[in-house]
Amino acid sequence: EVILLQRVQRLPAPAQLLLLVAAAEGSGEAAAVLAAGGRLGIPSSALLDAEASGLLRSNGSALVFRHPILRTAIYQGASLLQRQAVHRALVETLEGEPNADRRAWHRAALALGPDDEIADELERTAERARSRSGHAAVYRALRRAAELTSSGERRARRLALAARAAWNAGRPDEATALLRATEAEAATDSATYAELRHVQGEIELCRGAPLQGATLLGEGADRVARSNPRKALQMLFDMAMCANYAGNLTLMQEAGRKASTLPIGASEPEAALVPLIADVAVMLQVNDAAVRARLLQALDRVADATDPRWLIWAGAAAALSGSQARHQALHRRAEAIARQTTAMGILGMVLQRIAWTELTYGRVSGASIRSEEGLQLAMEAGLTNWVCFHRAILAWVAAVRGDQERCVPLAEQASATATEHGLAAQTSIAAWAVGLLSLGLGQWEAAATRLEAVTSPAPGTGHPFVALQALPDLVEAAVRAGRSEVAEAAVTRFAGYAAGDAPAWQQALAARCRALITRPAEAREQLLSEALALHDPDRPFNRARTLLLLGEHLRRERRRVEARAQLRAATETFERLGAAPWEARAR
Description:
By secondary structure, this protein is an all-alpha fold.
């Protein structure tokens, strides 16, 4: 840097000044640099001197510095008076609406103290950047606007909005610092206080303690429930999401109860979200026909939503209600919108929810692809809780594949973070993965012990829905380990969950579980055949496991030809899924 500056200082004064104009202009637009230089009395020959030095080159309509660090060094090496003269010339040069954003920044560079007119102009610049999903640009503009704002309340509002933009841009540390700076001044204004708590809650959800996030979001929603019910609903929705990851389904329902009291008209697009909040919490625990009917009715009104988080939640509602087609359509729409908005937290959430869905369907490759991408994104953006979630899912994928060397470390890493942050879902999935690994490897006693812990977690340490999902695995492990009482209790629990008009995939697993504890051979075969008929082909892992069980049963009954057909079909599916230990058993 010093050597480059020495080369700059050896140039004629006009060429040095032109380099400063180019450094201050920023975009490299040759026409703007030369026009501003003309206002400062710089002759056109100065460009030739600058190019001859090799420090700057002309690339068509653009001027490019030899090295990016040179631009910063030239600008910082100039005096305040020199920089102000250059920025003033650029303000005069950049006329008209197309140059409004660039002009606002040069005006801001001229300001030496609070200037509300320039701050307002920068906020308009931020609004235009937001429409382009330019979150980093929004963050910079609002942060500088706050610095130039004379009023404490307006400054707090802009800092809170800047924190939101920093968070969306994948800069959680900057967002957290801005929120701290806003805390003292935000208390007097309900809208700013709510936005402050909203961003804090989202950060807790993605990289902190979701239970704490739920508390912050509830506080903020209460402050604006009357003045801005739509904002309150958005916060209660995020409160429900925090409660879900913390495994506190009672708190999820509380968020839904609060949402139902908000004065939101039935025609408002957000109105359909209200029943989804509480009803999803119910369906995560029991199959309720009336609740399912309400969810299916609400789904029709959410399908055109533009918030990916709503769509993901609606997708979960569709899955719990047995509406697979709508579930997949909602997730596809959520992912498409999330990739367009480029908000890191939202895209990270969408990817992990889709990965979880692929896992529950037993689509191992799909879960792996989504979680590998999601893990990379979450690590880059510092989204600790999403890193934890993806590691848990990848541990489960490794368990299916029998990859002990990958499964166990991933599960341990996920468990450590989950314990520290109170992440019930991640805790349960990671522990389930290790139990499933033992089951696949034929370690029956270890599998039964681990899976029993997953399905009956201590209060606050596991997720009720994941516990239900793991029950069929516990049944098989307990039967093979000779722990009949544990198996029978697990069958009873899962049968209660899959009762009535539950989705076919749940009824299929319930039938398979009953088959495993049924002694008469004919009854067992009938139940396994019933399960096979109910299995959804889109859930290949579970179907193949039922084929394996039926093949094993037929083989024990010395019906080898019939057994071979079932076992061959199971083998082909396990091979396609990469489920090596299961494939070995089927072979």
